[in-house]
Structure formats: C-alpha cells, structure tokens
C-alpha cells in the first residue's frame, strides 16, 4: 500500500533519534533518495511480501503483527517517534531472503520517512562500514550458533532416546534369553521322562490317556486366569496338600507352577480319575513339564512381541520409510513418542491419555511433530521432577496428554502438575537460548524449535497456560493443508481396537 507523498525536511528527520547524529550532507542525501509518506488507517505492508522499503515513523501509531496459522497476532503497538520497521536486513543483500518478516498497519493518519531498501543498504555500507560488518557477523554468527546448538540439542535428544530404547529392549530380550535357556532344559527333561514312560509298565491305553490329558492341560494353561497374590497363595496351599496326600514327591515345588498354569484341585481330581493310581505320579510329573514349557513359550512370545512393538514404535517415531509430508493420525505419533520416552519418564510419573478418537487425520510433517512432542514431554517431566525441590526427572506427578477439536483446528495439549512457569519469564520461554534448566541440562532451543515447527512449518500455534500445579502447552494444528504445501500422501491406517469417541487411558511408566 502506498501513501500520499509529502515534502521531506532534513530538519524534521534530524529530530528522530535514528538520524540525530548525521551531518547536513547525510540528511540531505536521505531526503533526496527517500521520501515522506502519509498513510491513512489500514495496512502499510504485509508479511512475506518483497521488502522494498525501510520505514521510520515521524508521527502517528503503528501496529506490528506476525502470522500464526490463519491469524495475524499483534506483537507491538506504539506511538513513539522514530520507531522503525521494514527492510532492516537490506544491507545483508542476497544472503538472506529480502521479505518483510511482519505486517505493519496504522490505526490513525501516520507519517513515515520511507527509504528504498537499496538506498538503505548503500548508506549502511558507505557511512558505517565497520558497523555493517559487525552487524553481519552478529546476524550470521547467531544463525550459525543456533544451528550448531540445535544440532547438539537433537544429538542429545537422540542419545537420550537411544539409551531409553536400549534399556527398554534389554528387559524383554534378557527375559527371552532366560526363558529359552530354561525351555531347552525342560524339553530335555521331557525327552528323558518320555523315555522312562515308554520303558515302564504303561499300556497303550494309559499312554493315550496321558497324551490326551497333556493336550487338555496345554489348552487350560492358555486360558489361565489372573489371580491376586492372596488367591494364588491359597490355591498353592490346596494343591500342595493334595499332592502330598496322593504321594507326589516335592508337591510344594510343583504347586506354584500348576497355579500359574491355571490348574486347580478339581483338575487334578479329573486326572486322578482318568489314570491308574500307579501311573499318577508319572502323569503329574509329565503335566508339570507340560505346564512349564507352555508358560516359558508364553514368556518368550510376550518378550518377542514387546521387542517387536518397541521396534515398530522406533520406526513410527523416526518415520523411517515414510513420506516427509503426509496425512497422519496424531495419536499414533503421540503413542510412539511416549513409548520411546518411557524410560526417561520414570515410574513416578503417571501418564494419562485423554484422546478424542473421532478426530480426523491431519496433514503434517510427522517426524518433526514427534520432535515437538519430545520437547514438550521432556519439559513436562523435568517440571514434575522439580516439584520436590530438586531438578530433573524423578519426581511424582501426572502428565496428561489430551486431544480435542477446536473449530477448524486440532488441539494437542500436554498438562503437567509441576510448579508452573513464573509470570515474569512466561513471555520469554520461546526465545532462542532461554532456559530455566541447570547448566548442561538445557540449551534453550527446545521450545524455540518447537515453535518454529508448529507455527512456521505447520501454520499452527503453540501457546502456554500456567499456574502452580497446572501447566498446559497447547499445540493447535490446522485440519486441512494450506494451498502452498505439497499434496500430502495418504497411507492406510493400521487396524485399531479403539472405537469411536473419546478414549481416556492411564499408564504408570
């Protein structure tokens, strides 16, 4: 938008703090190459447009705003003479995109001194060469530092995730190894027991009965009920007494295995009624090996399934073999991130998932959203850990992850019961390099990176609400892709056992 051009007075622009030290010749050059324009209430320039001019306000009121998703959020409003905006990086030339990084409008008739961007770049290099070099070094040095520390932040997060994943994989892997070794031993004993049985005075009918009982016992183990410790202890005492009464040696050792396999006194009575009395001890020993092998195979199955789930979660988290931009179910991303961070979250933190499963999939960069979830969950766990006066993870509290729909956007909220964010620093938490963590534990880039991913890349918003005991970071993502984004690739969703509606689950990690 252009205003009404007015005469430029060197004396008037010399009264602005930006130009008060310039010589009459320099002021004359500014007026010769620039101009004074009067704008009526309304827009002056828009964010993202080519930065063609440098604006210095002479009188009036200006409002600066930044685009957040589909909204323009006001970041500054002032009537102070001499404030400036526009092509402030023109002196950097083509090394940076020369576009306006905010939008400016005026709320009353306002006059600006307007200098073309090229003229601003020329006078900076001619009049202030040393300052121009220092500003260039500061700008690019800050960018390089931010990039380097950002890479370090990602490496630290990767190391933490790798350590947690290794720990999580080690438990089921070690369990599978132990169960396999024990299973090999039990199968060897079964072979020995089979040889003893075949050489004994057992008829073909008795052997057939043993095999039939073995099959029914294996089926019973697969359907074994889950007992409380008190119920299991009572049943072990009953089975141990029954085994002793029927002359079965070491009944106290066999009873716990039978209880775990779902066998009870009634079942043993059926076995005793089926086989001859002299065959009963051998039958019970044979059934003991059967139950043990079934339980060991169940343990191996559970362990390997756990490993498979962890590997799937790691692939989901890293988005291996996936399109970089596609339609995703945010609940899958949240679940994979929570699983990847389960080792770091700790046992004292109760994780509550309050998911609205009716929400549609959204177009997104899933790998980068996972980085946002990682940063916000990590901060929440750290905050919970600091409630007891210490720092870092390890405290007791609740982390609630909630999804919901807000108009035409999808909400993902991370709520923690930590001490909250003090009001005096709340406006700074998204600034680069600002951190409240101890030295060596935070770089101050986690929230800055998250803000850039959500706002700049996904055209959403990231905001925080905080009081002691209730801090909520809220990510709002558009439900539809903006026209400037590539068409997202849609992938078939894996089958899910979750029905429609809101799902709330609670996990202790």
UniProtKB/TrEMBL annotation:
All copies of domain Cyclic nucleotide-binding, residue ranges: 18-124
Signal peptide: none
This protein's UniProt keywords: Kinase, Transferase, Two-component regulatory system
Name of the top EC class for this enzyme: transferase
InterPro entries: cNMP-bd_dom, cNMP-bd_dom_sf, HATPase_C_sf, HATPase_dom, His_kinase_dom, RmlC-like_jellyroll, Sig_transdc_His_kin-like_C
PROSITE patterns documented for this protein: CNMP_BINDING_3 (PS50042), HIS_KIN (PS50109)
Protein name per the record: histidine kinase
Organism of origin: Streptomyces subrutilus
